[in-house]
Specification:
The complex is a heterodimer of chains A (about 120) and B (about 170). In chain A, about 30% of the residues lie in helices and about 35% in strands. Chain A has about 120 residues and is an alpha+beta fold. Chain A has two domains: about 30 residues; about 90 residues, mini-chromosome maintenance (MCM) complex, domain 2 (Sandwich). In chain A, a hairpin with a 4-residue loop joins strand 6 and strand 7. The longest helix of chain A has 24 residues. In chain B, helix 3 runs antiparallel to helix 4. The chains are: A alpha+beta (about 120), B mainly alpha (about 170). Chains A and B meet through helix 1 of A and helix 5 and helix 6 of B.
Chain lengths: ~120, ~170
């Protein structure tokens, strides 16, 4: 039986590493202004938020449900959804974070990627 | 089948389900998929440390399946099942290394395993490895919630242990 102090040390190390990794991942600016929308793992649409002149609503309708996305110049969010948990709606605007917006019940993922649509296609 | 055992595990399942449903009313602390208190794990933990892994597994499976049905969120079943089973496996392994005053340690690792399992299921289902971006955040949340549910479970084992064990193996 290891001492409780040993366990506290192990947990503290994991916690510190996670905090460092989170800070690195979330404070790091997103690679670019191109929003990629994935449904069921497949690319559904790519929107260049930098080139967007006016707000645009994107409705994703699958057999699982509906997510309505609102893309504005420089940012994108899930405006409404009929999923049970609404985690995607509460996530708010995605404008410069590398962390994706996720709607697990509907298998919808929105994330920002770098470069132009062409670059992303090539990469 | 031992009737006492069925009755006792059913009572634990009912308690876990009640806690699970009440927790649904608490707003998620952060809009990140998988971040939640996981209060129902207090019961899984209590069952594991007083009755052993098989009773804990029975209580867990019944709670997860019924919970998804009661919450009207069958889509979440896959994630909670993967997370729950990994969490129980982690806690059951930790149990061999710990004393009854260190139950919270098992709970912290169990919560981390839960979050990792859920995330893994989510990555596989959505075929989006980018979701692993959330792993460090989920590990932090798992440590905090696991510590809380673990201490609660430790108190439960201390207070309820003798009554639960009393009906065990007879």
């Amino acid at each position: 039986m290891a001492k409780t102090g040993t366990w506290i040390a192990v947990i503290a190390v994991i916690l510190l590493l996670s905090v460092a990794a989170s800070l690195f991942l979330f404070l790091r600016p997103a690679a670019g202004q191109t929003a990629e929308i994935y449904v069921d793992g497949a690319l559904y649409r790519r929107v260049d938020l930098g080139a967007l002149a006016a707000p645009e609503r994107i409705e994703i309708r699958t057999e699982r449900g509906v997510n309505v996305l609102l893309a504005e110049p420089g940012r994108i969010r899930v405006e409404s959804a009929d999923c049970p948990d609404k985690v995607c709606v509460e996530a708010g605007w995605l404008e410069d974070s590398a962390a994706p917006i996720v709607c697990l019940p509907h298998r919808v993922v929105v994330r920002l990627t770098g470069g132009t649509a062409l670059d992303a296609e090539a990469g | 089948m031992d009737v006492k055992r069925i009755a006792r595990d059913a009572v634990l399942t009912a308690a876990a389900l009640t806690i699970f449903i009440v927790e649904l009313q608490i707003p998620a602390p952060a809009p990140i998929p998988g971040v939640k208190l996981g209060l129902a794990n207090i019961v899984t933990l209590t069952a594991l440390f007083t009755l052993g892994p098989w009773d804990a597994l029975a209580v867990l499976l019944c709670r997860v399946v019924l919970g998804a049905a009661f919450a009207g969120n069958m889509a979440a079943l896959l994630y909670s099942l993967t997370g729950g089973l990994l969490a129980l496996a982690a806690a059951a392994l930790m149990r061999r290394l710990l004393t009854e005053r260190q139950i919270w340690v098992a709970s912290v690792f169990s919560a981390m395993a839960h979050n990792f399992g859920q995330l893994l299921a989510a990555v596989l289902v959505t075929a989006t490895p980018a979701l692993f971006t959330w792993l460090p955040v989920l590990l932090i949340s798992g440590t905090v919630t696991g510590l809380f549910t673990g201490l609660a479970g430790q108190f439960a084992v201390r207070r309820l242990g003798k009554y639960l064990r009393h009906t065990h193996g007879k």
